[in-house]
Write a structure and sequence with these properties.
The chain is mostly helical and about 290 residues long. It contains eight helices and no strands. Mean pLDDT is about 75; it is low at about 1-5.
Length: about 290
């Protein structure tokens, strides 16, 4: 059964190819017929004129024949012309057909050759485009592999000691310890009181000591921490992390120290907490973490 099935498949393929190619063959033959007169630098109107002249010449020649002159009736003259004319027409048509078939063969060969040249040119262009696309594909594949290896290597690399989130936790710890130390060692709070317009000398000294200590705290903060805190917050902002008003707060004053367990812990007033929360929006290599 298999050879028979294979033969049927081959016949089906042949029929399919023939049905697909037949319009192409008709187009070639049609073009060859249309362009046949051009082989002899002419056109089909000139061919028709030549045929008319040929027929007229046959008629004139027939009238000069002896049989035409000897015929007494009109019917006899027509028979003489027709007999002579058919003989000459057969010879002329045969020679004309042979000549035009030769010219048609030349036209057909020329048309097939022109189509071959055009198809060869298109095939060459297609091959060039295919080769260019193949080179581009190979180049993109190499680039993708290189980028994949680079990303993989970078992801496998250890987190730098100066990564953004490490610097964030480090300065948060420094500032928290600084503020806690200043609170632990500050003198008793003493503020001017409108209800006591004439405080005692001891009260004035206490107020001055408290205010000087607060100003000293702000001065140390500005010298050691303010620019670093603002710079780190700006880094997060440049990466697309929402920082709200945190940079402005650090620019204006030292962070407030919020004790663990207090009502303010984790609130917008807990600026150290807000700072450390930013670190969870970037990875070990300072890339923004997204979930979409």
């Amino acid at each position: 059964m298999f050879p028979m099935f294979q033969r049927e498949v081959c016949e089906t393929k042949s029929d399919t190819i023939a049905s697909v190619m037949w319009p192409f063959y008709k187009m070639i033959i049609h073009r060859a017929i249309i362009e046949t007169p051009a082989v002899v630098s002419s056109n089909w109107i000139a061919v028709a004129v030549a045929a008319i002249i040929f027929v007229a010449t046959l008629i004139l020649r027939s009238r000069r024949q002896q049989g035409y002159k000897q015929a007494a009736t009109f019917r006899g003259k027509v028979s003489a012309v027709f007999g002579q004319w058919m003989q000459l027409l057969r010879d002329g048509v045969a020679l004309s057909l042979i000549g035009w078939l030769f010219v048609f063969a030349i036209s057909l060969a020329s048309t097939v050759y022109a189509e071959h040249q055009q198809i060869s040119t298109l095939a060459s262009v297609f091959e060039q485009q295919r080769d260019a696309a193949s080179r581009d594909r190979d180049s993109l594949r190499v680039d993708n592999e290189r980028l994949k290896r680079a990303v993989q290597t970078k992801n496998e690399a250890p987190e730098p000691k100066d990564s953004l989130r490490r610097r964030t936790f480090s300065i948060a710890k420094e500032v928290s310890e600084f503020i806690a130390n200043r609170i632990a060692n500050r003198p008793p709070d003493a503020f001017p009181n409108s209800n006591d317009p004439n405080p005692t000398e001891d009260r004035k000294r206490a107020i001055k000591v408290s205010q000087d200590y607060a100003r000293e705290t702000e001065t140390i903060y500005e010298d050691r921490y303010r620019d670093r805190l603002v710079g780190i917050v700006k880094e997060y902002e440049s990466k697309g992390v929402t920082v709200r008003w945190l940079a402005n707060d650090f620019q204006q004053h030292a962070p407030y120290l919020v004790f663990v367990g207090s009502a303010a812990e984790g609130s917008p007033n807990d600026e150290i907490y807000q700072l450390k929360e930013l670190a969870y929006h970037v990875d070990a290599h300072d890339h923004l973490i997204t979930i979409y």
